[in-house]
Amino acid sequence: MTSDERDRKTTERARLRAARRSAPAAPMSAEGLAAVEAFGVVPGGTVCAYWAVGSEPGSRAMLDALSAFRVLLPVVAGDGPLDWAVYAPDALRAGPYGLLEPSGPLLGVSAVASAAVVLVPALAVDHAGVRLGKGGGYYDRTLAAATGALVAVVRDEEFVEVLPAEPHDVRMDAVVTPGRGVVRLPL
Question: Per its UniProt record, what NCBIfam families does this chain match (predicted)?
Fold first, then answer.
């Protein structure tokens, strides 16, 4: 990636974060279930999801809508890939970055490979499946081990034509937005 491309990525992140700060919440409760159903996950199957923070798309209602599935949430463990634990609404603890994390037993980094679908937070995703995250690299370090479908969860305006990409960026298999539903990628 060239210096100009890195600068573009930084500029895009700043623009998208500013837009989110002024945007209303995006609870997106049914969209997570639609994404799981689009990939044919059967009840009892494993789905990785995330706890939405601030105006990030997603919600506790999105997690609760997945109650027929075994839902794993990420647990931040240092600077490495994300660890995972089973979501239980009454067993959450405060984690870094404003996250709520499961307080149950940790399943290890490799637990992401057991998921049929991974719902992935993103600032934006493009038509080729390039995902722009917050810049910490946690998901890029983790998603390389995933074997299920990777589905970015964003607002309609955050599904864009093209984003800058680096070789380590893991491509998404689909995106889900409130207005467009599930869109398989690349277009």
Answer: MTHFS_bact
